[in-house]
Design a protein that fits this description.
Blueprint lengths: L1 E5 L4 E7 L2 E4 L4 E5 L2 E4 L4 E5 L2 E4 L4 E5 L2 E4 L4 E4 L1
Antiparallel strand pairs: 1-2, 1-10, 2-3, 3-4, 4-5, 5-6, 6-7, 7-8, 8-9, 9-10
Length: 77
């Protein structure tokens, strides 16, 4: 289990088991290879340089923080 803080003030805990992850905000994630499918309909694809989202946002990872091309960021711990 880990926690995630977003630049929008959001806070959630995420529990992972196998290829599934469950967020305290009610979102479920399923991983298949380097692709993650969200129950909210978003698809995330991991690339060597970061994470590309189906909504057009690209996230660059520095340490335990993801910086989005839309100005957002998310830190996990």
């Amino acid at each position: 289990m880990h926690s995630v803080i977003g630049s929008d003030g959001s806070f959630r805990t995420v529990t992972s088991t196998g290829n599934m992850a469950f967020s305290s905000d009610g979102t479920t994630y399923a991983r298949c290879g380097n692709t993650v499918f969200s129950s909210k309909g978003t698809v995330l694809t991991e690339t060597p340089s970061g994470i590309a989202s189906s909504d057009g946002t690209f996230f660059s990872r520095i340490g335990n923080t993801l910086f989005g091309s839309d100005g957002s960021f998310y830190t996990s711990f």
